[in-house]
Amino acid sequence: MSLRRPGRVFMGLREVSGHYKGLCEGFASIGVRYDYLNIEENAFAFKGGDEAHGAMLLRSLKRKRVGSVGWRRGFYSVLQSAAHVYVFVFYLVRCRYFIFSAGASFCRLLDLPVLRLFGKRIIFQYHGSDSRLPFIDGARYSPEMFSAEQAWQDTLSLQRNVELVERYANYIVNIQPQSNLLRQPYIQWMQIGVAAKPEQHYIERGWLRFRELCDKPSATVLKVIHSPSLPHAKGTARIRSVIEALVAEGWPIDYQEVTGVANDSLIELLLGADIVIDQLYSDYPMPSLATECAWLHVPLLIFGYAGEHWAKWLPAEAIPPTAYGEPETLKEALKLMVESKTTRITYAETCFNFVHANWQPAQVAARYMALFKDDLSKEWWAVRDNSYRLGACLDRADSEGRISRIGQKAEFYFRNRGDKNVDQ
Q: Potential cystine with 126: which of 131, 330, 346, 397 (Cβ 3.0-4.6 Å)?
């Protein structure tokens, strides 16, 4: 039996909704050394990543470049590029395994062939706009900013990036609604899991509050929280309008919108919620906020158009059991959740049981390690299906209108195009 420690894992360069923070916990739990580099600064203040070697340097140079004009901007751009190369070489020597997020690497993907030349293993994890077709991505363009010509040029540019990733990554992790640009087989992200998890003391508080709610009569007025990262992309105006109408009808709702707060502050607010509404236009049933609410025993509503597709893409036991319906059902779904304590308890308990059984950070980290070692289950390969065409962060009419404005060339991406498949 070999006592050799597993190789060191690099994760970066950007945090996405707490997934990599959770992976840090996961790798530590299974005894895998890691480096987590987060070069982005954001209002959500997910912990970790800023203490890694090179993080402060890259952040500082980016701030100086963005805040400069004229020759100074060019000077800092050169310094920033040189710093990226330096940081890349540092981790090239230090790490064996690499997980890249948000469609980026150290040197605009040009470092990928170098990593492979030195025998490194690469997993590229996509999260949404980094691989979703730009012309049906409401997070990329708000309705008033959409230009068919620009969206098509962005599609071609993104396709070139994805093709480069496909050439050099050992594995790509993604989901079907965001994978129309992919030509090679890829791993179904929902089989790997979302690692976002609140700290244990929050989970314990959530459990205690859940038990209290189970044992006591329902509150006279229910606290409903909606926390959009991008209000125009999450259907916030429509959610607000529906809730205002319900309150006018006499429904006992105390509604609160929360934007731009640090993750710890958001978790505190979620612990006081009776119901959370995630978003109207998600293309999968359990993103990070839904995962966090599941850990906290807080019932959540989430909406989107991909529900019927997920029954084709995953076995029933692998589909996250969230209250995931089409956007048009928002009013009725919220009314049911408000009037039925049993419904709230059932969703809170079922979703917690799902993440506790399947998406522990240690389990998710172990699956990434299995990919690095080519020790994966056949069920992890995604079913190739490009038929979903309603995108994300858009209502149905807007998605269909954008496809129409792109024209016949958009249809290419909704066919399976003879893509390679892995036998299931």
A: 131
| Interior/surface letters 162-189, b for 16+ CB within 10 angstroms, e for the rest | bebbbebbebbbbbbbbbbbbebebbbb
Domains of the chain: 9-194+364-414 (no CATH), 200-358 (3.40.50.2000)
Q: How far apart are CA 380 and CA 259, in angstroms?
A: 35
One-letter amino acid identity for 202?
Y
Q: Any idea what the Cα angle at residue 332 is, between residues 394 and 295, rounded to 5°?
A: 75
The helix (H) or strand (E) run that includes residue 171 is: strand 171-174
- Which residues have CB under 8 Å from 342's CB, separation 6+? none
Residue 421 pLDDT:
47
Beta strand extents in 70-138 (DSSP E only): 97-101, 121-125
pLDDT of residue 143: 83
C-beta separation of 106 from 13 below 8 A: yes
Contact present, 293 and 300 (Cβ < 8 Å) = yes
Residue 129 pLDDT exceeds 80:
yes
Distance of CA 12 to the CA centre of its chain: 14
Residue recorded with tokens 């540019």: 157
Burial of 160 (0-12, 13-18, 19+ CB in 10 A): exposed
d(CA 273, CA 276): 7
pLDDT digits (tens, 9 = 90+) for 352-376: 999 999 999 999 999 999 999 999 9
Residues in contact with 124: Cβ distance below 8 Å, sequence separation at least 6, in sequence order: 99, 100, 165, 169, 171, 172, 173
